[in-house]
Amino acid sequence: MSDNLYDLFASRFPADPDDLFIETDSGARYSYADLDAWSAHFAHLLVDLGVTPGDRVAVQVDKSPEAIFLYLACLRAGAAYLPLNTAYQQAEIEYFLGDAEPRVVVCRPGTEGWIGEAAAKAKTPHVLTLGQNADGTLIEQSRTKPSRFDTIARAKDDLGAILYTSGTTGRSKGGMLTHWNLASNALTLHKAWAFRPGDVLLHALPIFHTHGLFVATNCVLLNGSAMIFLPKFDADQVVKLLPRATVMMGVPTFYVRLLGHTGFNQELVQHMRLFIAGSAPLLTETFNLFRERTGHTILERYGMTETGMLTSNPYEGDRLAGSCGRPLADVEVRIADENGVSLATGETGIIEVRGPNVFKGYWRMPEKTKAEIREDGFFITGDVGRIDEKGYVWISGRAKDLIISGGFNVYPKEVEEEIDQMPGVEESAVIGVPHPDFGEGVIAVVARKSAGDPPRAEEISARLKTRLAAYKLPKHVFIVDELPRNAMGKVQKNVLRDQHKDRFSR
Ligand code: AMP
């Protein structure tokens, strides 16, 4: 067996190839035999189009089982799978194609016109389409290809995928993930979360991101079991399908929405084994409410595009609200100062990580790679946090979110935690924007609860004054209905910073 990730998956496929792999919300069923055949059809087509090992295949398509088969076909053909967020528009796609120079682009039917233009500029010779109903030229052109394909041997360090970071600061960077980065992390998670025969995963995440693509799908593939595939999160659908699932993975927003659904109750989740949350901080309030309502304790974990998953609350043992758990078995985590020197237990600093899961570097950005991976192999995550005496990791924000006002450091999380406890407040985001005297001025944007009296800005300011040092106090407090979030449920502080950038201009 080579180190191709697909070979690892295939070694774990069920004995009966007719066993279910994916069932869609419309009831279409795909077996492991279908997976094997369709990934072979697609891999043959890619090779016939001239794709050779190391070539990139860029994909901007809606979620479908065939999109998963395409990911697997790329692995089998030795190509690097490069999924793109379906929200990206022409200028963004031009950047990604120009940067990655893929051999093939697969896009949604109807977008081949403008994507074709971007592909031509990038000298990408082939543009195919894939729709959500098993339609498009990818299917048409590969249907008659053989349903057996000899998976191309790959070494551990060979490229399996490129995932671009969301690029909230500067240009998006292509994280190069090897076959072993993905395999080692999947094996570790499969074990940590005790996947077992017969598990059914409810999959409502997007598949252009590490969470839905690698964390969720790779665990299922290693387990040789089934998943129920929803095109996107829809609380009604999830409530309907939960009784048939045993595991669900979601971003925190999923759990907030489920709690807001009148049909969501303990009975529905009786035989669920595990609810996992990640990609953004899970609020303690959500964690507690979920436990009260269902009897289940959400397991929070932490990871990122460049590294896969890093820490997890225990499957057996204490799952702590607000902590993302302990380092996974083969992952080293340290808290360091800006020079990479380890800090003592309990001290807050930058989270750095090392392990087989840590990516190979940024695509065609050797300088950036050098700046973010230290010589001893530790990757500087850019997240700020601490590790307590029991080894649990507590994240307090992103280093780039740190506000420096009048020379003082303001950690947004500290201010947010104060505001979040006030009546009528759902959640808050504290940001720094240019200020003529202080360098940065602190601003709080506060989302009100959907029901009840809204909080008043003056009251929040007055209360904060009694709780925090003057330099940490927001100079303005804005009340809004909700905070802007991206597809992964992350609060988009960059959007808020942009909205308020002229707030203090003279
Ligand atoms: P991405 O590369 O899009 O997956 O984003 C990774 C970033 O999401 C991390 O660097 C963290 O800032 C954040 N993140 C992921 N999981 C968690 C979590 N459980 N708690 C807090 N932040 C998280």
What does the model show?
Helices cover about 30% and strands about 25% of the residues. By secondary structure, the protein is α/β, with parallel strands linked by helices. The chain folds into three domains: about 5-20 and about 30-190, 3-Layer(aba) Sandwich (Rossmann fold), CATH 3.40.50; about 235-400, ANL, N-terminal domain (Rossmann fold, 3-Layer(aba) Sandwich), CATH 3.40.50.12780; about 400-500, 2-Layer Sandwich (GMP Synthetase, Chain A, domain 3). The strands form six sheets. A nine-stranded mixed sheet has the order 2-1-10-9-11-12-13-14-15. A four-stranded parallel sheet has the order 4-3-5-6, sandwiched between helices. Strand 1 and strand 2 form a beta hairpin. Helix 1 crosses helix 8 (about 210-225), helix 4 packs parallel to helix 5 (about 110-120) and helix 7 (about 180-190) packs across helix 8 (about 210-225). The chain binds adenosine monophosphate.
Instruction: Return residue spans where pLDDT drops below 50 for at least 5 consecutive residues.
Output: none
In helices, the fraction of residues equals: 25-40%
Computed structural class: alpha/beta
CATH topology of the largest domain: Rossmann fold
CATH homology group of the largest domain = ANL, N-terminal domain
Instruction: Give the amount of beta strand, in percent.
Output: 15-25%
Largest sheet, in brief, is:
9 strands, mixed
CATH A-level architecture of the largest domain: 3-Layer(aba) Sandwich
Number of extended strands: 25
Number of domains: 3
Mean pLDDT: 95
Rg from Cα: 23 Å
CATH class of the largest domain reads: Alpha Beta
- Count of alpha/pi helices: 15
Q: Which molecules are bound besides the chains? A: adenosine monophosphate
Q: What is the terminal separation in angstroms?
A: 67 Å
Can you tell me the overall shape? globular
Enumerate the strands of the largest sheet in spatial order, edge to edge or round the barrel: 2-1-10-9-11-12-13-14-15
